[in-house]
Specification:
This protein is an alpha+beta fold and 299 residues long. Helix content is 37%, strand content 26%. A 5-stranded antiparallel β-sheet has the order 6-5-4-3-7. It has a 4-stranded antiparallel β-sheet with strand order 9-10-8-11. It is globular, with a radius of gyration of 24 Å.
Length: 299
Amino acid sequence: MAQRETIHRHHLIITKLRKHPCTFEELADYLGLESQLQEYDFTISQRTFQRDIRLIASVYNIEIVYDRSLGKYSISMDENDSAKELVFEAFDTFNALNLTTRIAQHIHFQKRKPAGTLHLHGLLHSINQQVLVRFHHTKNYGSNEEQRHVAPLGLKEYRSRWYLVARDEKDQKIKTFGLDRVKDLEITTAKFTPPQDFSLDTYFQYSWGIIVGGQNQPEKVELQFTPFQGQYIKSLPLHPSQIILVDNDQELRVQLHVHATHDFMMEILSMTPEINVLKPKFLRDEIRRKLERGMQLYQ
């Protein structure tokens, strides 16, 4: 019971400090109120709280800092710390699902394959230690498994799935592997030297999702949206390169700097008829051809 109370108390502390900085007294009052509501003993002393701060940093990698000028505690958060945001998302989900044992009638889960997260810890270790890994991998469009022997370089999350970016030791090419299609992961002791000029940010700089453009140059794509759809595009940009060119009552017009891959075209088609490709001409023409072929199915 004591361990359960400690874990729950940590969750309450993190939740409270995520909302706004607090003095120790404010935090202690909050924990006291939760003790009455949940019939647990969450009350703490300053000494216990300092121990909790160290444990939270160790277990969750969430740093709680003290501002002497304000006399308040807060969570240290970098503006661009996307990894910590993922921790908070997982933290919120865990808390919600742990709220009650009878959740089936209140939560509707998306039906999907496992995201392959069981491999994350081992692959991160391999990346940090620069050791080769082996695994069996099945392609999306095939059923045959292939054994891969690769130098892991990084991990990418896209649409709730995880992908390994690695150099295939067979042909020395950098490839992407879906972790949901990886099994029998083996971490070897063989060291490798990563490419000196490789960077995940640079590798995916102009990519849509996980597909890179290869030898093709990225394109400056100009898209026009209806005002209604434009509200979504402004709140959730399509790509980090997105810049707004026109924003008025008639349209939202944006520019992206991306590789015009198949996945990117599918995304454009998914927003029809709220979107119009203005530039480049070859992309506009290809989208029109795809729409015309689609219309033929309804003749």
